[in-house]
Each structure stands twice: as structure tokens, then as C-alpha cells.
Amino acid sequence: MQNTNKKFSLTQFKLFLDILVLILFVAINIPGTTGIPNHEWISFIFALPFLIHLTLNWKWIVSVFSRLFQKLPGETRFNQIWDSVLFLLMIFVSFSGAVLSESVLPALGIHLEIDLFWRTLHTGMANLLMLMFGVHLTMHWKWIVSNFRRYVLQRQVNQRETSINIKNTSSPRWRSCSLPPSSCLDINSSRTLHGQKGFARAPPRLRPKWVQPRRTFPNS
Fold this sequence. Notes:
The chain has 220 residues and is mostly helical. 73% of the residues lie in helices and 0% in strands.
């Protein structure tokens, strides 16, 4: 049971890490909005969650590349080739961006001469990287959506239901109920839906025997 919880917590961490990587990647690719200095600093910050992402998925990477020359399913083979090209392209874009640095490297005391060739190459490769990253995101979109529903949306629903149950158990009507807790909750919930007040006015099908109304017969 403990291993299951750890597995779920690791999956949850991967989900939020991937969302962070996506947000940073989008911010990197809008330098006209963020400005060149922020663009460079965000690019350097991006390296940390990206490396953590690779580390967490390292077991999958090793297992796939250990079967490089073996027969693999088409989707797995496509992921293998696509992610490899994406990784190499990201390294190249990062290197060319560092060569063109106007803020980060000078702040560290490193001054390089900016070459127009590197700027043109960096811009072209960055545009290609955005396209390839979009395809990579699409291939894993089902995993992201399913886990987002599980760990974010469903968690909010569970917290809301828990708060409602706590509120019901603290009410005077709950304390006046002598039935088992689950029966009291069912009666209280049903009474609320029907706009009724008071324990004895619960719907007939949910009333315990001791509160069933007595039948009256006309006088003969």
C-alpha cells in the first residue's frame, strides 16, 4: 500500500513538473513580450526542470534505447526518434543562445562577440524546436489530461465532499440521530433535497420504524 502511494505521488510530481516545463517553454518563445534579458534568464532557469524531467524518465529512455536495433511498436519507435532529435535540437538552441547572450553572460563577466550567423541560426532552430515540442506535447497529451483530472480536478471534488460531510456531522440534526452515521447522512441528504426540516420529516422510505407515521382508520 505504501508503494502505491509513492507511485501516485511521483506521478503527481511529474505532472506538475511537466506543466512548469510547458509554462517556461512558452515564456522562452515570446522574447518580444518578456524582453531579451528575461528571455535569457528564463532560458537558464528552464534547464533545471528540464534536467529533472529527463532524470525522472531516465528508466524509460534506457529501456527504449537498449532495444535500439530490436523490433518495437510503431508509436514507441516514433517517440524514440522524435525525442532524440528534439533533445539534440534543444541542446543546439541552448548553445547558440548562450553564444548570443547580451545579459546573463555579461552579468557573469563573460563577453562574447555577437555574430549574425549565430543569430540567424538560433532563430531558425528555435522556430523548428517550437514545432517539434508541440508534436511531443501532443503525443503525451492524453497522459497529461488524465492525470490532471485525477490529481487536480478530482481532488477538488473530494475536498468539497469532505467539507460537506463534516458540516453535516456538526449540525444539531446529526447529533439527534440515533442511527448509524451512514444512515443519518442519507436521511439528512435526502431531507435537504426535498426542502424538509427536522429528522422526523425525512422521506418515508428512509425513516426508521420508530418514526413511521401511524395508520389511522375511520370509525366504524
